[in-house]
Amino acid sequence: MGFGNNACVKFRRLLEDALDGNLSPEEYRAFIKHATFCPACHRKLRGEIMFRKLLQKAFNKKQEELFKDKAQRLIVSIKQMIHQQR
Amino acid sequence: MSEMEVPVNKEEHPDRENDNINQEGEQLEKTQEEATMGRRRKRKELNISEEERQRRLRIFEKEIEPLINDLLRFATTFLTQGNIDDAYDLVQETLLRAFESLDTYKEGTKIKAWLYTIMRNLYINEYRKRKSAPQTIAYEEYSTFKSDDDEEGPPPQMTPAGDMRQEVESSYLSEEVVKALNKLPEEFRIIVLLADVDELKYEEIAKILGIPIGTVRSRLHRARRMLKKELKEYAKKLYRIEDKSSKD
Fold first, then answer.
1. Among A21, A43, A66, beta carbon nearest to B76
2. Contacts of B53 in chain A (CB under 8 A)
3. Domain count of chain A?
4. 3-state secondary structure at position B96
5. Residues B5, B104: contact at Cβ < 8 Å?
6. Which domain range does residue A65 map to?
7. Inter-chain contact B174–A57, Cβ cutoff 8 Å?
């Protein structure tokens, strides 16, 4: 399966679905194939991947700072409460 | 996931109403920290065998403990408007309910979406009533969004998608992302969080939020566009850092 006419338009329409895992293997192969040959779409794909990685990184960093001690305290507390339920 | 029940109904916990009333008086005598924990309820005894208790503890340690940071983040970002103590309280109650319902859990199935669903329902049924409505920004404010598709960016680097792992070390930039995300209306922010940070599938997000998959898709698309607009300047800085790194 190829993208045929208006390949760049199709590529961009499928961009989010592709990265969200919503494409069939065949669609995904065609998607990646187009990105390999089209610099503009490749750049678009690259930007989208960067965007998602940044969100993850920002939040992982944030939660490490915020919840440093809370998570451990929570585990101890929950186990005590579970024990008391006997 | 479909075979796992989500313990949310008050009927399952008939002692809650009375406990809510009693705890008001009790909290006056508690320290600040204890007051935060004051929503803790006197729980029913859990009538399970020691063998079953040990099985649940193993699941708890193996599957749930590693997710506690994620649960705290979900609660803080989406449910408690940044109040970490409330989030702590909410996560604690969520974990206890999950433990009580672990008989429905099959080892190896995805547990994060199940926990999020318990927590969200718990929040809606019990916690939200105590809080004022969250401050959100009207979606209309974003309606003038213009796509950046046609703008000239840096020259493309023809590398496979799997190799596009450029680490960015600046904490300042991370803060920019968090700020931008916090500017989104609540219903958009949570979608991005669940999809892009927790990497849940549309179907799982739909179950957690109780909305159709089509709504997940359309909100996610809009939310990402809003974020990209907010982060336009940020993205330029990022590209500069990335280009510099690739030359080093």
1. A66
2. 82, 86
3. 1
4. helix
5. yes
6. 7-84
7. yes
In a domain, A1, yes or no: no
Q: How far is A26 from chain B (nearest CA, A)?
A: 17
Angstroms from A41 CA to nearest CA on chain B: 9
pLDDT tens by residue, B103-145: 877 766 778 888 998 888 888 887 766 654 443 333 333 222 2
Find tokens 């199940």 and name the residue: B114
Question: Does the residue A26 lie in any domain?
Answer: yes
Q: What is the pLDDT of residue B120?
A: 86
CA B40 vs CA B7, B95, B115: distances in Å: 17, 12, 18
CATH class entry, domain B139-247: mainly alpha
Binning pLDDT at 50, 70 and 90, where does residue A39 land? very high
**Digit-coded pLDDT (tens) for A45-80:** 988 888 888 888 877 766 777 787 888 888 888 888
CB A55 within 8 A of CB A26: no
